[in-house]
TrEMBL record:
NCBIfam families: mthyl_TIGR00027 (TIGR00027)
Catalytic EC class: transferase
Function: Exhibits S-adenosyl-L-methionine-dependent methyltransferase activity.
A Pfam family per the record: LCM
Highest classification ranks of the organism: Bacteria, Pseudomonadati, Pseudomonadota, Alphaproteobacteria, Hyphomicrobiales
Keyword Transferase: yes
Record-level GO BP terms: methylation
One example GO MF annotation: methyltransferase activity
Family of the protein in this entry: Belongs to the UPF0677 family.
The protein, known as: S-adenosyl-L-methionine-dependent methyltransferase
EC id: 2.1.1.-
Keywords recorded for this protein, A-Z: Methyltransferase, S-adenosyl-L-methionine, Transferase
Length: 279
């Protein structure tokens, strides 16, 4: 991201959650608060994307589906007694406003500039307050995640669910694996993480390659270039190497079955994966 400026891809993700809620039937994920957080730039982007809804259908499907799967996993963990949820690269996520149980502690980890912007948007919308998220500003180039979470009151020995939604492509692989290693170092059975990622697009079929190149170019123009992707084989190897005991890798074929099971006619990204790894 451009130094000192809030993430524009976070804004784009919120816009596509709004479009999914408006346009897709049946919706697979419902975010009733995202629209209230938009600034003038966000409202302009929403209007532009709404004018050409077919151009965004695959992207908004990806964004809605990854959120649905992450929060389904959280709901199952809550049933097992988990009361800590850590959103890494939280952006304009609104789970804390839709809190499924009153005593769930939602830690939002993000770059200070993006987090300051989100807090302004929450205040402008009259949302948040003492029952909102626990904000954990982290500059990953300078700060230690474990230290910042501990300072915010995170209990490293208690069960926790982590999520990195729309984050992996923008993080260098070594830094990403360091973060995942921290999650995997929780006591056995005490942590899981859900994240989305993509297979390398450079060698895909020409139409798919062109679509991904266009998205990558847009992200790079916003100062947020794509730097990390995984083959399924590399992903399995790296997650085992950092210490996860079990991995559920939902690739395009599995995601298509998930959508069908939800009664949705939407189709997943041809290279996308949503992964859940557990200690």
């Amino acid at each position: 991201m451009i130094d000192g400026r809030a993430s524009r891809t976070a804004l784009g993700a919120a816009v596509h959650r709004i479009l999914h809620r408006r346009l897709d039937r049946p919706p697979i994920f419902d975010d009733p608060f995202a629209e209230a957080l938009l600034d003038d730039e966000g409202r302009a982007l929403l209007a532009a994307r709404a004018a050409e809804p077919e151009r965004s259908v695959r992207l908004r499907t990806t964004i809605a589906l990854r959120s649905r799967l992450a929060e389904d996993g959280l709901a199952a963990a809550i049933d097992r007694g988990c009361r800590q949820y850590v959103l890494l690269g939280a952006g304009l996520d609104t789970l804390a406003l839709r809190r499924p149980v009153a005593d769930l502690r939602v830690f939002e980890v993000d770059h200070p500039a993006t987090q300051a912007w989100k807090r302004q948007r929450l205040a402008a919308a009259g949302l948040g307050g003492p029952d909102g998220p626990i904000f954990v500003p982290v500059d990953f180039e300078r700060d230690r995640l474990d230290q910042r979470l501990a300072e915010a009151g995170f209990d490293a020995d208690a069960p926790a669910v982590f999520a990195l939604l729309g984050v992996v492509p923008y993080v260098e692989r070594a830094a990403l694996l360091d973060t995942l290693r921290y999650v995997a170092a929780r006591p056995a059975g005490c942590a899981e993480v859900t994240f989305d990622c993509s297979e390398p697009w450079e060698s895909a079929a020409p139409p798919i390659r062109a679509a991904y190149r266009a998205l990558a170019d847009l992200a790079a123009a916003e100062g947020e270039p794509w730097v990390t992707s995984f083959t399924p084989e590399d992903l399995a190897r790296d997650l085992a190497a950092v210490g996860f005991a079990s991995v559920e890798d939902r690739g395009p074929a599995v995601l298509a079955r998930v959508l069908a099971g939800l009664g949705s006619p939407l189709r997943p990204s041809p290279l996308g994966h949503v992964v859940t790894a557990r200690t």
